[in-house]
Amino acid sequence: MSTTYVGTNTFALQPGSQLTVDAWGMDTLVRKYKGKTSLLAAFLATYAKNRAKVDSEYNWLSHQSHSVDIDRAYATVSVQFKGIQGSTNSSGIGLPPVRETVLKTQEVQLQYIGDVLGTSTGAVANITYVAPSTTIRYVRRGRPKKQSFKGDLELTEEAISIVARNGFPGSIQLFAGATWRRELKDSGSRPSLVPVGTVQSYNGVIEVITTQFSFTPAGLWYQCVEVNEARIVPLDLANGLINFFV
User: Fold this and answer.
1) In whole angstroms, what is the distance from residue 73 CA to residue 118 CA?
2) How wide is the angle at C-alpha 135 spanned by C-alphas 20 and 104, nearest 5°?
3) Computed over its alpha carbons, how large is the radius of gyration of the chain?
4) pLDDT one-digit tens code per residue, 100-112
5) Assuming Cys at both sites, which of 22, 33, 122, 198 could form a disulfide with 173, CB separation 3.0 to 4.6 Å?
6) How far apart (Å, rounded) are the C-alpha atoms in residues 188 and 185?
């Protein structure tokens, strides 16, 4: 293994570096260099000027981060490299996405519709329900400009369960939103028509909503997290009933 030179002095590479795989499935390597504290600024400048610096042995690994431990006259710099060996698919995603689905308790307030469709009586009910939430973790090349898995959630008619209610008595009618209809269409179970509302009941629409989209740099890659959740939202008839047709 080569030694990194700074001027006429050295920051020497320490033995013991091992290639590992992190929780995202990315190859990870930590290199430790030791040298005089007086040479530290110059050594760190080599990484500040080249954030995409690759490892000398594993050239698919690029600089992720570094930390410094100073012990009087000497300093140890731990440099972390990350990467994925091999090519990516056409979307730039380097590894198969990992999905985890759990059930979450949610709440929504719905208005009671009177004898005329679209006429609210002013009565409301607080509905507590359980619905699926899917967390998707993936690694992609380049800074993400938008979500890669918007609306991605396995959703069936039985996926949402009402567990409690508090308010004016009345039936609860839930209708599939646009995202859910698209999922049903893709699966070959397209409904012919989605009801637009029911009188003398509480009306809600089931939608898949992205509640989190975040990413952090990992070398030349980005580790991304998306959370898609099924939610009941109030049926707003004032926005036009046509929006609730397939």
Assistant:
1) 77
2) 135
3) 27
4) 999 999 999 988 8
5) 198
6) 5
Is the model more confident about 179 or about 154?
A: 154
On whether residue 213 sits in a domain, the answer given is: yes
The total of other beta-carbon atoms located within 10 Å of residue 217's CB is 14
**Other beta carbons less than 10 A from residue 172's beta carbon:** 17
The answer to whether 129 and 161 are in contact (CB under 8 A) is: yes
208 and 141 belong to one structural domain: yes
When comparing pLDDT for 209 and 242, which is higher?
A: 209
pLDDT tens column, 122-144: 788 899 999 999 999 999 888 89
Q: Dihedral of the CA atoms 88, 89, 94, 97 (nearest 10)?
A: -170
DSSP for 54-75 reads BPSS-TT-EEEEEEEEEETTEE
The letter for the amino acid at 61 is: L
Number of domains in the chain: 2
Could you list the residue range(s) of the whole structural domain that residue 56 is in? 4-83
pLDDT, position 72: 83
CB atoms within 10 A of CB 231: 20
Q: Which amino acid is at 207?
A: E
> Is the pLDDT reported for residue 90 higher than 80?
no
Structure tokens that stand for 91 in this block: 């979307």
Reported as a single tens digit per residue, the pLDDT across 157-176 is 678 899 998 888 888 888 77
Q: Are the CB atoms for 162 and 204 separated by under 8 Å? A: no
| Judgement on whether residues 70 and 110 belong to the same structural domain of the protein | no
Q: CA nearest 204: which of 105, 113, 101?
A: 113
